[in-house]
Design brief:
Chain B: It catalyses: N(6)-[(R)-lipoyl]-L-lysyl-[glycine-cleavage complex H protein] + glycine + H(+) = N(6)-[(R)-S(8)-aminomethyldihydrolipoyl]-L-lysyl-[glycine-cleavage complex H protein] + CO2. The complex is a heterodimer of chains A (about 450) and B (about 500). With about 450 residues, chain A is α/β, with parallel strands linked by helices. Helix content of chain A is about 35%, strand content about 15%. Chain A folds into three domains: about 45 residues, no CATH class; about 110 residues, Aspartate Aminotransferase, domain 1, CATH 3.90.1150.10; about 260 residues, Type I PLP-dependent aspartate aminotransferase-like (Major domain) (Aspartate Aminotransferase, domain 2), CATH 3.40.640. Chain B has about 500 residues and is α/β, with parallel strands linked by helices. The two termini of chain B are about 45 Å apart. The chains are: A alpha/beta (about 450), B alpha/beta (about 500).
């Protein structure tokens, strides 16, 4: 057995021990009290050689149904999209993936510039002034937005629509418990945030109003109407948005949103069981110095040449410690890079074309399923690439039957919404062909 | 490798009409966009994303990569970050379709392989840390800290106790007090003693009926093992508090000692550090949290469990603090760490820590004659030097760090921990050969000599990088956080394009 990651030879070890004037490595651990030493081998499986590991993990991987072999109509926050081949080639360059946070800008200009470009692309898509280098994921970015809003307004209530992703709301609740603010959830009406209920929920104590665009049920919220309510009592207007949809939808920045967050997974990031993905966080200039996480800024070197550095670090935990705006230290740099490459590959026209194909294909599927007996499209709100259907049977039964036909069906909304049992959230992206959609429709019809 | 001084931004390379993607034509009957989306919700001004060809794209990012230093580029002794080699098989496995192309909401029976990975990783990390249960949800060390503190809070609250104070030593990572604040807890900082260790007498004064927890890194950020840990644990436990282990430095103890055996109740690990994540230029990481039985009722939902031969998700954790991260945490990183653990086995992991500690001690003693060594005792996987001797000559630690760049080395962590003047925190890791260590040692000795004989060489460094020292003050004072095109061309509104269906 070779430990191929460990270069120290017996000869090396001998020389080093000799230099240190000791006879055994154990002497270097003499400061650890005997009573807490393990003094036995770790009870974990024996080492696998590289070929054995390849076999073992290939076998495990094959136990999972995956989108190479099955047709996916499952979304609900993570989507099966076209990923240009360039993405994997760029993020496989080890100068990127084996580096850490660019603390030494002179030898990290590549990473810093890539992040600066990412920040710019996020600003362009969302219509906002400034963005950070990325967040753990969309839901944690949303919670950080609420934390920020409570911090700057010094108010203790956050109003969030029930049409926001259930996991985002769950994570928000834990944050609220930690920081000591209240979360008020607003009901849904016809697939959209109930504006009357929202209006009633928002008051002087409201730090933020949070909605999702398109929302968790696939419907496109009317941000113009919501903005009026959100700003009525000087709270912040926070929008969580699928950035791909912003190829076609008017960006939240044009609706006077104060903070826009979301999940960049639709751009170049594989589903990989939900993570790692890439949250983004964008604000109006006014809140630039309150953003959590790392931010890259442009500057000049001693010769006046353009260069990039981590900036506004006075906000951060390693400087401010207990007074920091957030405890966030790492970001999702490699996934932000993947997203940047995908956004670059698509470019100005591609992001529109992909977004439009999502709308068209989802619309085609929606119309076709609506004509099936027993199925019904329940909301008439406009949609992007997801929509809700009412099914004649329990969702688990339908999905089991679809799986036998090589199809991974939609999300069972009854898991989160009592009133939506036997309702399915279906996602139809540009990656689905007409033939595949027709197979789904046929399958649903025959179940 | 050609390194231009200034590299064009991707936006500056953009030319209308170029593209680096190719989609099939839309094959479903199309409906006019205006019939599907209300006009006031349709975008009128397209996002100015770059328009480049595929080769332009590859050259751009290849050039950027050439302006970046990774572990594969050269030695990276960044203390507390454990910049060890990132095995390539980890990257391959993470890209298998059965792992990369699976959806988190698939039914349990269609992802048994993925759940098996998670379950086994939970189990093996519990053994490695000496804990009873492990959650894999936290996305990074800082999120692990926060999750653990929320569990500690819930534990005390469940016992009807109001404990709000978290004690941290002054050598602690900045995330510790920041995480405490985000968890709604207050921080008490206690000074280290003259040996760089927790001052047990100060700790005794700080603990009380309001103590929620002590957060400790062991070995600490000075690279020193807290040899009074058993007594420390007793002091905290007797006061009714819990012990939190910051696992950033776990690379020193694998198979040698375990936080659970030291008396810790909860531990987070940074899988991107000790378990070869990789670091990704700043993330994604993964920060699993292990707990003793007393904290298990408060673990985030869901946990992966094994029922017979079947792996399932258990959402039924009534006292759970809730959910801290979407889905199952950073699965792709968890998977890489699991491949690493399986590739090493018990003997490999033990040798990892032995070699890491031997390398660090070797370097420390080789450099000791040339730099101040504030804590002269055996170190673990890392050690700190002080540049105060060089500072008297007008050369600061920052200058030494910049001079190292000229030799192709990434500098150590500098100015941390805060309690050491002109601090350099050096962590060689176990994956570096003796020749690399010697080359770095010789370079440091050379720089020490330069500081005495020709300090301007050090003060003007780096000499050989694509940019020289950057103006960080202006960057923070007048922040430019995004590219803004020259507006002359687009000032005329009639040039504005609209989104077409």
């Amino acid at each position: 057995m070779n430990f191929r990651y460990l270069p120290m030879t017996e000869e090396d070890q001998k020389e080093m021990l000799q230099f240190l004037g000791i006879s055994s490595v154990d002497e270097l651990f003499a400061d650890i009290p005997d009573e807490i030493k393990l003094n036995r081998r770790l009870q974990i499986p024996e080492a696998l050689s590289e070929p054995e590991a390849v076999k073992y993990f290939s076998r495990l991987a094959k136990k999972n149904v995956n989108s190479d072999d099955y047709i996916y109509f499952l979304g609900a926050g993570i989507y099966d999209h076209y990923i240009p081949s360039t993405v994997n080639h760029v993020i496989s360059r080890s100068e990127f993936y084996t580096a850490y946070t660019p603390y030494q800008p002179e030898i990290s200009q590549g990473e810093l510039q890539a992040i600066f470009e990412f920040q710019t692309m996020i600003c362009e898509l969302t219509g906002m002034d400034a963005a950070n280098s990325s967040m753990y994921d969309g839901p944690t970015a949303l919670a950080e937005a609420a934390n920020l809003a409570c911090g700057v307004t010094r108010k203790k209530k956050v109003v969030i629509s029930k049409a926001v992703h259930p996991q985002s709301r769950a994570i928000l609740q834990v944050n609220a418990n930690g920081q000591g603010y209240d979360v008020v959830e607003v009901d849904i009406k016809n697939g959209l945030t109930d504006l009357e209920a929202l209006d009633q929920a928002v008051d002087q104590d409201t730090a933020a109003v949070i909605v999702q665009y398109p929302n968790f049920l696939g419907s496109i919220e009317d941000l113009a109407a919501i903005e009026k309510i959100a700003h009525k009592h000087k709270g912040l207007f926070v929008v969580s948005s699928n950035p791909l949809s912003l190829g076609v939808l008017k960006p939240p920045g044009e609706f006077a949103a104060d903070i826009v967050v979301g999940e960049a997974q639709p751009f170049g990031i594989p589903m990989q069981f939900g993570g790692p993905s890439c949250g983004y966080f964008a604000v109006r200039n006014k809140y630039m110095r309150k953003i959590p996480g790392r931010i890259v800024g442009q500057t000049t070197d001693e010769d006046g040449k353009r260069g990039f550095v981590l900036t506004l670090q006075a906000r951060e935990q390693h400087i401010r410690r207990e007074k920091a705006t957030s405890n966030i230290c790492s970001n999702q740099a490699l996934n932000a890079l993947a997203a940047s490459v995908a956004m670059t590959a698509l470019g100005k026209r591609g992001v529109q074309e992909v977004a439009i194909q999502n709308i068209q294909k989802a619309h085609y599927a929606k119309q076709a399923i609506n004509q099936l007996e027993g199925y019904e499209v329940v909301f008439d709100a406009p949609t992007f690439n997801e929509f809700v259907i009412k099914a004649p049977k329990p969702v688990s039964e339908i999905n089991s039957a679809l799986l036998k036909r090589g199809i991974v069906g939609g999300y069972d909304l009854g898991r989160d919404y009592k009133e939506l049992s036997q309702h399915i959230l279906l996602a139809v992206t540009e990656a689905r062909t007409k033939e595949e959609i027709d197979l789904l429709v046929q399958g649903l019809g025959e179940i | 490798m050609i390194k231009q001084k200034e590299k064009a931004l991707i936006f500056e390379m953009s030319r209308p009409g170029r593209a680096a993607y190719d989609l099939p034509d839309c094959d479903v009957p199309e409906t006019k966009l205006e019939e599907l989306i209300p006009s006031h919700l349709i975008r009128q001004t397209p996002a100015e994303l770059p328009e480049v060809s595929e080769l332009d794209l590859m050259r751009h990012y290849t050039e950027l990569s050439n302006r970046n230093h990774g572990i594969d580029s050269g030695f990276y002794p960044l203390g507390s970050c454990t910049m060890k080699y990132n095995p390539k098989i980890n990257e391959d496995v993470a890209r298998y379709p059965g792992f990369a192309k699976i959806h988190p909401y698939q039914s349990e029976e269609t992802v048994q392989g993925a759940l098996e990975v998670l379950y086994n990783l939970q189990t093996e990390l519990a053994e490695i840390t000496g804990m009873d249960e492990v959650t894999l949800q936290p996305a990074a060390g800082a999120q692990g800290e926060w999750s653990a503190l929320m569990m500690i809070r819930a534990y005390h609250e469940s016992r009807g106790e109001n404990r709000t104070k978290v004690i941290v030593p002054d050598s602690a990572h900045g995330t510790n007090p920041a995480s405490a604040a985000v968890a709604g807890l207050d921080t008490i900082t206690i000074p280290s003693d003259e040996h760089g260790l927790v001052d047990v007498e100060e700790l005794k004064k700080a603990v009380g009926p309001d103590t929620a927890a002590l957060m400790l890194t062991n070995p600490n950020t000075l690279g020193l093992f807290e040899e009074h840990i058993v007594e420390i644990a007793k002091v905290v436990h007797e006061a009714g508090g819990l012990l939190y282990y910051d696992g950033a430095n776990a690379n020193a103890i694998l198979g040698i000692t375990r936080p659970g055996d030291m008396g810790f109740d909860v531990v987070h690990l940074n899988l991107h550090k000790t378990f070869t994540g990789p670091h990704g230029g700043g993330g994604p990481g993964a920060g699993p949290v292990g707990v003793k039985k007393i904290l298990a009722p408060f673990l985030p939902r869901p946990q992966v469990v094994k029922v017979g031969d079947h792996f399932k998700l258990n959402h039924d954790i009534p006292q759970s603090i809730g959910r801290v991260k979407a889905f199952f945490g950073n699965f792709g990183i968890l998977l890489r760490a699991f491949v690493y653990i399986r590739s090493n086995g018990p003997d490999g992991l033990l040798k990892v820590s032995q070699d890491a500690v031997l390398n660090a001690n070797y370097m420390m003693r080789k450099l000791q004659p040339y730099f101040d060594l504030p804590y002269d005792r055996v170190c673990k996987h890392e050690f700190v030097l002080s540049g105060r001797r060089q500072k008297k000559l007008g050369v600061r630690t920052l200058d030494i760090a910049k001079r190292l760049l000229d030799f192709g080395f990434h500098p150590p962590t500098i100015y941390f921990p805060l309690i050491v003047e002109e601090c350099m925190m050096i962590e060689p890791t176990e994956t570096e050969s003796k020749e690399t260590l010697d080359a770095f040692i010789n370079t440091m000795i050379q720089i020490a000599k330069e500081a005495e004989e020709s300090p301007e060489i050090v003060l003007e460094a780096p000499h050989d990088t694509v940019v020289s020292r950057l103006d960080e003050v202006s960057a923070a004072r007048k922040p430019i956080l995004r590219y803004t095109p020259n507006h002359e061309a687009s000032a005329n509104p009639s040039n504005k394009e609209t989104v077409k269906a």
